[in-house]
Amino acid sequence: xxxxxxxxxxxxxxxxxxxxxxxxxxxxxxxxxxxTKDPHFEVGGKMRDILENHSPCPTLSxxxxxxxxxxxxxxxxxxxxxxxxxxxxxxxxxxxxxxxERMVSDPVGRRILEDKPxxxxxxxxxxxxxxxxxGTFGQEYFKFMDSHGYMPEExxxxxxxxxxxxxxxxxxxxxxxxYCHVLLNYDTSVMEELxxxxxxMVQTGVPVSSLSALIAPLATLSPGQxxxxxxxxxxxxxxxxxxxxxxxxIYYEELMDRPVDEVRKELGYVPM
Length: 272
What we know:
mainly alpha
């Protein structure tokens, strides 16, 4: 089974010497990719689409213009994943650096930065998870995606993050979002999406999650929904975020064949 092959690859021991793109934060796609000759950037590599999609923001005014336009559009239509992503990409440098530091200081996080697992074909075929035993994390993830008609490839590729390492960090942040849906047992209603954004805000501090968690409830929920959100979802998200495993230091792909309740318990997550 293809998934088994992918899992065995991911389980290999961490290398003692990480590449430059892991050991130190880099500064630009052009110089650092050429200098390191990292295979992840080669044709067919896991970072190739990020490299090809990258659009530099040379000035602060250009970055702020993208941010302003994306913010207005995202507030008008929160389902525009590309605009939501652009808000995060243009405002998240400091937070992404902090996330990177937490990852590189953790054994699993370091291995993720080195392996650069991606949640999209040809690197990962989520449909293979449909044949996994009932009750496993993989099966639950497959059912979640299949029931909503989602595709991992629908997650927009990072565009405006100029540091290659941080570009991957933000891409990973976006691609593990649906894993967290399953582990926390949050469905896709507006309230549950905002609850998950609150969890992400507390764990990562990424500005786009803060915008979604703090501002969006006032704009997208009715006043009658506020009591339920703030009395139920916010405390639940806070507790899981503070006491559960850091979401970016979880190698989800290695946990697919394990019972989902066992995975939750090990990670310290209590489902809704």
